[in-house]
Fold these 4 entries.
Entry 1:
Amino acid sequence: MAQVAGQESTVSWIFTFGFILMPGVVVGVLLGWAEHLRTTGGRRGWRWLALSPFLFALFNPAALAVALLGTAGGYAVSRRGPLWARIASGLFAVAIIPLWSVIATAVGGPRLALDTPRGAWIAVYLYSFLAVLALACAIPHRPVVAVPERPTPETAEVLSLERGALPSE
């Protein structure tokens, strides 16, 4: 935040931790849980975790754009669903690139103009953080990994025979 706000940047419990960091932790935990569920066979309704970035908007309505861009980007790179919908989502998600060049100075004044070093740096921050969020938001859309069955004593003996072990008597 200090990169964007500059010298006027302050840290407070409620705004910094309550409205920025805490929702980020919760969204990260939910998307991490989605990866755990995905790799352990999935569960009923687990794909709803794709909407977890909207918790950002619950804590801070101004962050609705972040949630929209992240979820749209996640759907676009997920390789699931109709191609036309993924293309439309991808175009929506990358629209921030030209849009930021137009609104950057309105957000942070002339110091965030993209033709300044600080403005270029903030743009890289913004694009990279949104790209990471989009990749994380793709997790609930990815295919479920099948959980291998645990071998029973009978199948364990067959597996050991296939590996060249001598049969037990």
Note: The CA atoms of residues 76 and 86 lie 4 Å apart.
Entry 2:
Amino acid sequence: MVKDLLNKSAILQRDKCSYAIVPQTPAGIVSPGELQRIVDVARKYGVEVLKFTSAQRIAIVGLKEEDLDNAWLELEMEPASAIGKCVRSIKVCPGTTFCKRAQQDAVSLGSIIDEKYHGVQLPSKFKMAVSGCMNSCSEPAVKDIGIMGTPRGYTVMVGGNAGIRPRLGDVISEGLNETEVLELIEKIIGMYKGYAKRYRIGRLIDDMGLDNFKKELGLI
């Protein structure tokens, strides 16, 4: 049976014969040169459409299996971790780098998180988001770890997800600076790694109770 080609970071499409590849674009930012290479690869290998994903990436859709290796070589970009039990994406709003409404530097923090955690293996798929203000354009409330900027610092939420069993994240800490957010993320992921059950962290919180979860993190 035809399947995704994990060794080529290629996702089988609905037609069961073509593939999509997704270059990694940390914080949803791409340079003009990288964007040009994506377009050049698409044109060279007869791709008819590029798809912007919910994870702020550009999927090159409709590649033949025999063209995958050359496509990656010519892109000169790392593959995104779009499938598997790992940290898949860190969605980031424009933050104070670009947005007049932002109250915190989401791009800087999100880029650090992406560099450190993107692709890290965990018991289940894991998504994160950073927003620079309470408009929450990156949807932190429905991410496994969501970080929301406020005038007083960052609020951290854990356990959110969309999908078939949607769940809003629980607020576990508020008024944090960038360093404190990164330290808390490290604790959360380290704790989650220690549980063998293969489900999202929101279900883990439901099983053990929010207070017990916070106690394990040393928050109460």
Note: The longest helix spans residues 178-193.
Entry 3:
Amino acid sequence: MTLGGVWTDVVGQESAVAALAAAVAGEPGAMTHAWLVTGPPGSGRSVAARAFAAALQCPQGGCGECPECHTVLTGTHADVEVLTTELLSIGVKETRELVRRAALSPSNGRWQVIIAEDADRLTDQAANALLKAIEEPPPRTVWILCAPATDDVLPTIRSRCRSVHLVTPSTTAVAEVLTRRDGIDPETARVAALASQGHIGRARRLATDADARSRRADVLALPRGITDVGSCLRAAERLIEAVKADVAAASEISDAAEREALKSALGIGTGAKQPPGAATALKELEKRQKARATRAQRDGLDRALVDLVAFYRDVLAVQLGADVEPVNAAEAAAVREIAADSTPESTLRRIEAVLACRTALETNAAPLLAVEAMTLALR
């Protein structure tokens, strides 16, 4: 099945696109008021959600060219609200605002569409606030929730949604979209698609950002540099500091711009007396920025751990003589070296140690302690 228009950038998701397109087309029993779009990181959950929203608003079912499609995809459509967060959780305040918005009738579009990205980050109180709105929706309102897996959403919510599951796109599909959409040469796109393991956003960054490739190479050098307890602890500290530096570099400009915009809005620095509540507003902004940095650090560290798992996957493939394409072709010499110096059993234990570190971080363990425990297990 091949669909163009708004579905063009929903990569490698033919089955999911077919289900969503059937709902847009009005096929009997295909449409419902609440959807749960699930899939692994990088599979394009938010892209699919926005494409579905655009197709719902489009008079032609998602042509990709009309004003309705354009405004939805660029985030400016009056009847499509998107809740996204850069923080660790979504609170009840933001959720109640969504519920209020969902109760409105469409102003110009065919539907009032509410997209909640990262629905797995809803607090329990926020999820309960959302539940009633999904149970009793207005007739022209459509909810689209996005989460990594159905189990990441409360059972009471997912039981009221129709689930659409996305899969990890193939290397070929990711490389094709990088070449077609971003103009990246085919070989660079293929290498980036392999390294990203189907994560479209990560593949694009690796293909276009030399610093990202350099940081990834530093992570993949870690297995060769840990020989004793001291080197394990130093490696853990270097990994944490590298992630922090990466996040700080990425957020420094945006954080400063946010502070200056808020000061300008409050009239601070114009010579006038500082308005009441200005100090509180600045303190609240600083708090949000710190929370955003915490999430970004955890996400960056998780990406590094995924890269380590891929490295040891290549080691295991060599040890078992598996006829599979390596994820890290540029690290072939290091992979062969470690494969020759260890056993498949020890490689599996190392993979388990990295996955255990990811689990520990998901339960809010101290990052440095979790990574130190991992590097000690990787010796």
Note: The CA atoms of residues 220 and 308 lie 6 Å apart.
Entry 4:
Amino acid sequence: MGAGRDVVLIHGYFSNAHTNWIRYGHAEKLAARGFRVIMPDLRGHGDSGKPHDAASYPPDALMKDGMALVAALGLSDYDLGGYSLGARTAVRMVVNGAAPRRLILSGMGLEGLRHTRGRGDYFEHVLTHPGTFERGSSEWMTEAFLKTTKGDPQALLHVLQTFVDTPRDAIAAIAQPTVVINGAEDHDNGSAEAIVDLLPDARFVEIPGNHMSAVTRRELGEAMADFLSA
């Protein structure tokens, strides 16, 4: 969407590019500021392939897909961002050699970067026990979101095996100017402020909402656009 400086945005787990970036106007805000917004659907999500064989989901597959996208498009001077799993994927890309000018990490905390299995256990439980959760519970809300995005449970279970922990020292070595944007009530992936404390050039922006709702808030797109346009 748009024309101008390239920015690659990666959506979260269970989601897709349309839900995270287009539906609530975030991509449109960036396009209006002179950016070309590139929004892939992750492997196992959205309009991308959803194979059911475990061999299609090796460790760090999402990072490698992101690197392949950047190479295929010939991007050399671009910005990179993501929400939740998208933020973790962006970090994996940078620590493996991707070189965006600036970095946006949203819906993510330090624990979610360093210890990925914890949230993986939660999602595995949701995916393998459909229809059993108390209405209004976190698991019930997550399952409801899965239904709205028409997610493929089998493919999404395999996506869990692609998660790779990022060591603290590798995170601390990220030199790009970074904005960490998190909902005030979002503690799903640990402390977002702890990421800022670890990075040499980072700022924290708090927006309203929890992990599920913050991505719907206009403040997310505004914070992203303000950071990239500064």
Note: The mean pLDDT is 96.
